[in-house]
Structures are given as structure tokens and as C-alpha cells.
Amino acid sequence: MQEKKHIQLPMTERDVLSLRVGDIVFLNGKIVTGRDKIHKLLCSDTKARQEVPFNLKGTVLYHCGPIMKKTAGGFECVAGGPTTSMRLEMYESQVISAYGLRGVMGKGGMGSATLEAMKAHGCVYFQAIGGAAVYLSKRIKKVIDVWKLEEFGMTEAMWLLDVVDFPAILTMDACSKSLHEEIEKQSSDIFRTLAGLR
Amino acid sequence: MRELRNAIVELYRKAATSLPQDIEEGLRRSLEKEKKNSSARAVLSVVLENTSLARETGRPLCQDTGVPVFFVKIPVGQSHRKIRQEIISATRAATRRVPLRPNAVDVLTEKNSGENTGINFPILYFEETGGEKLVMDLILKGAGSENIGQLYKLPDAGLKAERDLEGVRKCVLDAVVRAQGKGCPPYIIGVGIGASKDQVTMSAKAQFLRHLDDTAGSVVLSTREKRIVHDINQLGIGPMGLGGKTTALAVKIGVNHRHPASYFVDVSFMCWADRRARLVFSFHNSQFTIHN
């Protein structure tokens, strides 16, 4: 049921279509971070599209506000686990279609608008392990660059990271299947029985 | 007061980098219950490995070092104002030294203060104690779990929840179903019952100071706590919301007298990375201990 897959970024649509809910994946290559402020910017400002200094096509957008330490040569990631993705639901479908992402990674899953955009544009959702910030920071080989650090600060900036065997579980695929939706349905059902609501 | 300030920096370090033993043991017990080759088991083993790594490397367990919440018991005669000042100075120092992620954002300018201090940030609850030593509990409350908390007013027709502990059980189950995996389960759940909104939210938070294996003061409450955990773990949400047997490690309920017309229930969530630590400080000789 659970297949282990090593993924090299950037991904093509074909790569994405070979992935299924339940796959355990290990990401390799360049990913970017982005959370509340970056999503708002990417969606609200038409100029932003020209200004993003990194190529987002085919890559993974990681919902993460890391702790970074300044070093002689740049930055080192001290702790870098995922943040709750659902806060970005109102933006994500637009970001996927406008920037050509092939993957979104965070925790807790996303809603129906994102799931639809994933099907329409060939994109998937990876669930990273929340709170496992030190473990995951060890898989960030290099902090390559950062955008909007001054303006947005460490947490909200867009970081360009080089990751090696970054582990995650595929929970929303490009064929409209969502593990989060399934578990929500099942648990709501059990809840109604336990609460005597049927 | 410099000694107190340094002790508070160490309190921050302990809370941020070292998971309390009772929580770690709870997670270990949960792992044993989950099926072999399941996502739940994989998630819990990574979580436990992360816990060891954080302790060994002195790095924060989670990048979200949260909102610091202090519950402080102050000996008679010590200035609350000065202690508040030391906490604020220590917060700035800890943010640089541990390091902690700066999380205090000005609502009007949207600027992050960069040092985890600002208007009512950190959150401080002071009370006087008859004891000779200062007892300072610190909770680093992650935002993912804070965001999924719910406040209920009973009765609630939609939940068929009346004004009794059975109604409270339905509220907690409803809150967990709404939360799903968004706040990093397995959760520790604090519940406050009482007369007003501010009273019950504070009461729910204060439950996070209780250890997993402690029992509530009354048999009625402790029986109810166990029943609710049992029911939550039937829901199948599981570690990180990927399915499994462990959705919550514990439910802790705090009660206050209520107004005849009111029955408020607050349900507060703590992620598995339940970061708390206690400082006991003597003003006579500046000796202190920190444990969690």
C-alpha cells in the first residue's frame, strides 16, 4: 500500500501523475518556503510575478517559517518543520495555476479548492511531520538564498532551500483523492455515533 | 535580579529544547499501540527521534517556539513589576541565545518586534504564594494548536449538548473532529468550564501544567477525563491526522463556579510538542532548579 519514492526536483506533470495517496516520498533538489505574507503577495500584486527571484515552475512550495542562524557564508537552518496549510487555502489554487508548482508541502492538508487546482494543473500535496523541526532541518543541505527577508522577517520570507531525502507522505494526489478528506468523513461519522446525533 | 534573568533564559532553553518526560513516555506507549508499517507508527518514530535530536543538539524541538505563557507564584514582598521586567529582558536574551523564533507581530504596523516582546507578549499570570521561593511555570504555546481551540456556550442544540458533563464531552469531541490533524496530534487537551469566557479560556490553559499521569481532584472529573480520551481515540484521526489509534494523550478539565444562566466550555489544544518547564528560584541566595 505504502510505496517509497525518491523524487528529484523540479518535477514534470508526468512525475506528478505517477504519485498516489499513501506514497512515502523523499524530496531532493530545490524547494521554496512561503506562508501567509508570501501567499498574499503572490496573489494580490500582479508585479510580484516578475519580481520573484526564484523559478517556482515544477518545484515544491513548503509551508514553513524556519529558525535560521546567520553564518559566515550565509544562513543555516536550525529548525524547519511545517506550518498548518489550511490558513493558505484561499490563495493556494491561484498560486498553483499562476506559478506552475508541482507540489505543496505543509501539515494538516488543504481543502477542495486546492484539490481541484491540483487536478487541473498537475500538482500534489505532501504532508511533512509537524514539530519534527530538528529532524527535518538535517535534510536541508543548504540555504541557497532568501527573498523579502528585510520586509517580511525570518518567519515569513521566501527561503530557497536545497534538500536531500526530505521525508513526507503524499496525502492529496492529482486525481482528486485526499486522505484528509477521507479521515474527516470517517471521523465525523464516528463522532455522530459517539455523540448520539443520529 | 541579574541571576533571576539568567535563570529565566535557562528556563526558556529547557522548555524549547527538551520534551517533558511524561509526554515522551506517552508518545512511546502510543507507538507500541499503532500497527506495524502504518503512517501513525512512522510519524511517532520520527517524532521521538526528533525529541532526542533536539535534546542532544540543544536546538528547539519545533521551529514555532510559540507564544510564551508564564504562570508565576511570587513570594510575599517581592515586586511584581520588577519580576515582569526580568521576564521581558530574559525573553529578549533567550530569543537571541537559544535561539527562539521571533513571533511577536504588531497588529497595526504588521512589524515583527524581532525579540518576542510586545503588547501583552509574553502572556503573564501572577499570583502571590505563601512559600519562600518563586515558582515560575513556562509554556511555549505553538500557534498551530492554539488556532484550533474552540469556545462553547451550553446548551448547544446542534450538538444536543446540555448543561452537564455529558454536554462537555460532546463539545470536546466536536472540537477534535473540527481540528483533525491541523494542530499536530497526538493532542493534550485542556478544558475549562465556568461563568465567563475569559475565566474558562485561562482555566483551560492552566490545565497544561498538569502532568499526563496526574488525576483530577474529584473522582467525577477524573472518570470523565478518562472517558473523553477513550472516545477521542475511537475517532481514527491519529498522529498528524493520517489515521491511527492515538489522537489524544490526555484530557484535563478545570472547573469554576458558573452563573445560573451561563455554562461556558473552552477547549484548548496542545500539540504533541508540549513544551513546558518549571523554575524554582530562591531570592535569598539566587539558587535555582529547572525541571520539566
Structure notes:
The complex is a heterodimer of chains A (198) and B (292). Chain A is α/β, with parallel strands linked by helices. Chain A has a single domain (4-194), classed as fumarase, CATH 3.20.130.10. Chain A has helices at residues 13-17, 36-44, 48-51, 89-99, 112-121, 133-137, 149-156, 179-194, and strands spanning 4-8, 24-33, 60-62, 67-71, 74-79, 103-106, 124-127, 140-147, 158-172. The model of chain A has no long low-confidence stretch (mean pLDDT 95). With 292 residues, chain B is α+β, with helices and mostly antiparallel strands. Chain B is 37% helix and 21% strand. In chain B, helix 2 (21-33) packs antiparallel against helix 3. The two termini of chain B are 23 Å apart. The interface between A and B is large, with 50 and 54 residues.
Strand and helix map with partners:
The complex is a heterodimer of chains A (198) and B (292).
Chain A: E1 4-8, H1 13-17, E2 24-33, H2 36-44, H3 48-51, E3 60-62, E4 67-71, E5 74-79, H4 89-99, E6 103-106, H5 112-121, E7 124-127, H6 133-137, E8 140-147, H7 149-156, E9 158-172, H8 179-194
Parallel strand pairs in A: 1-2, 2-3, 3-6, 6-7
Antiparallel strand pairs in A: 2-9, 4-5, 7-9, 8-9
Helix pairs in contact in A: 2-4, 4-5
Chain B: H1 2-17, H2 21-33, H3 39-57, E1 67-75, H4 80-97, E2 123-129, E3 134-141, H5 143-146, E4 150-153, H6 165-179, E5 187-194, H7 197-206, H8 219-232, E6 248-255, E7 264-270, E8 275-281, E9 288-291
Parallel strand pairs in B: 1-2, 5-6
Antiparallel strand pairs in B: 1-3, 3-8, 4-7, 5-7, 8-9
Helix pairs in contact in B: 1-4, 2-3, 6-8
